[in-house]
Structures
1.
Amino acid sequence: MFWKKKQDGVQSVQEAQTAGVEKQDSAPKGLFAKLRDRLKATRESIAQKALNLFRLRGRIDDELLEELEEILISADVGVHTTTELIEELRERIRREKKRGSEDSKWLTDTLRSLMREMLEQGDRTLKTAPEGPSIYLIIGVNGVGKTTAIGKLAHRLKGEGRKILLTAADTFRAAAIDQLDIWSKRADVPIVLGKEGSDPSSVVFNAMEKAKIDPPDVIIIDTAGRLHTKSNLMQELSKMSRVIGREFEGAPHEILLVLDASTGQNALSQARQFLQSCGVTGLILTKLDGTARGGVVLAVHKELNLPVKFIGVGESIEDLEPFDPDAFTKALFQVEGEQDEDEDEK
């Protein structure tokens, strides 16, 4: 095991592709514009379908609400969350005397407002240490984009002026170590590496020792991504937490679970099992761009009572965004034909 700093030069395209690192794309956009573009598939599966339904039905009634319920469930909002949204919508209709109304804008605006209120519950800010480094354990099964999310998070936090240290504690796969090493170069941050097959907790311990010598503001730790059904994985995560806590009181400050939004309700199932064993404090939802299953954001937030802290909306290193319920729901409901709402960001 050793400490490794950024090397001169940029890795080749072949290296990046071999490690599964995603290609960068064009210059960054405003948050709303980015979400509007990247959430197109989910917007079509919820907002556009809701508007089409209203055009077909022509007025707000029980039949429309029943079909709207089916639309939400098919977009992976989840049965429990959908039921709560529809019941609250019924109450608003009763209270504001909208039964039989032909006001489609009121319907979509009210549904958007209900979703925003639901998503605003909980603390979405990253917890920080009162003194010493803030330490974040990142967990999740293989294939959800965990290592990529770590690289993008490191880039974002460094851009905010923080000194970052990455730790490659997923020692069960050489590819995971290599991929995080490449991301450390792209984000221009140091990394603590271990050899494949070595004890993950010993890599974490080395990172803690490194942090005492050259203190960072933030330590981000990649962990093994084997299936959540294996109890030894949970034991390893617990051991790493003890090692961290012995060196820095109160750490780790966050245990962030990475979920692939494109898997819909399967992501919710994964989260439930991790939550039972790992003390998860927040979520990172990846691959929201291109999926029609973005309703899972509502499902995991509501049914697990866990805040979504970051979302992945593209392939660029800039495409991990702090979750903003207002921007998210506005982008979700800007259906075809509406005026661009991003003028204030230009």
2.
Amino acid sequence: MPLPTNSNQWDRASGDDILFDGNTSNGESSGEVQQVYRNLVRTIMKREVSPQVKITAGYAFDQSYRNGFGTWHAGIDIGAPLGTPVQAAVGGTLIELQRTSQSNNRFVGIQGTDGNLWVYGHLQNLQVPIGSRVNPGQQFASIGNPGAPHLHLEVQPNRRNYTVTNGASTDQNFILRETMSPLEAFSKLNNGGGGGNNGGGNTNLNLTGGPGNDILTGSGGNDKLSGLGGNDTLIGGAGNDILDGFLYSASGNGEVDQLRGDSGADTFVIGDWYGKGYIGGSWGVIQDFSSAQGDKIKVQGSLSQYELRPGNQYGYSANDTAIVLKSNPREVFAVSLNVSTINNTIQLSTRDFISA
């Protein structure tokens, strides 16, 4: 099923948390909408959707929210553990919206480069001064509201200044007029305003994204997916695919890409002849590297320049592996999930790596 094609469809598709709870008996949003939701969570929390990280209130049509609070919700709520880092879905200028007496329950906005005002609520530990620039994927706060920790995410379209919604209103038409579905707004970031590129069948595809946060999905053939700038999600599908998410820059772009090969012997590109790609606060997250499947990780230059370190040194799990620059271990090129040198599921050798 394709993504929604208009705002009304997006509003309904993201209108209730039960549409994302996995219980098909009470209705579920399409797989494509669910993928946008998963990519949003990965971008703003660097987490996977789970029982601990999930939508707890939907947008504008959540009847249980209405029954409980007497109002219609102006965004979506994503429950997550207290202190979970919060990253920017889109870059822009950070502004103060509502500062309560509680330092762990702040509301701020990002005047996004997409033209929208992105509202983030129930925050603590603000890490960026108000008025400063925030890059896409940059952490600027963490989840607060200790009694019921969650992120309120709201998007007000085509504006720089905040229209006071207080997160919800008794007037549903006011909510629909002054805000939009955060899932629709995030989807429109893809491919510079499109919904991402998706392949099908067994054709050998060559898909290239734009400057935004792209979702590129391959086919059953041997595909090449190139994300360029932004926080991209590349999904190879069946076949022997090449996943190349970064846009090379001498100073880095601050992008965090999600690379998933699926089946086949896939190549995850984290550096090539034109340079070491993920630098300066950028990195790739390799979700399913498998040496047994014949996967390879491509780097620029000699393998002796690199080092493998446990992921928990960089905010991931000890069961994950970070690929770093040996001469400067703070320079992380990629984190490969669920593989470790301890059990030999990844090793810095020609078994698992290719030098460009």
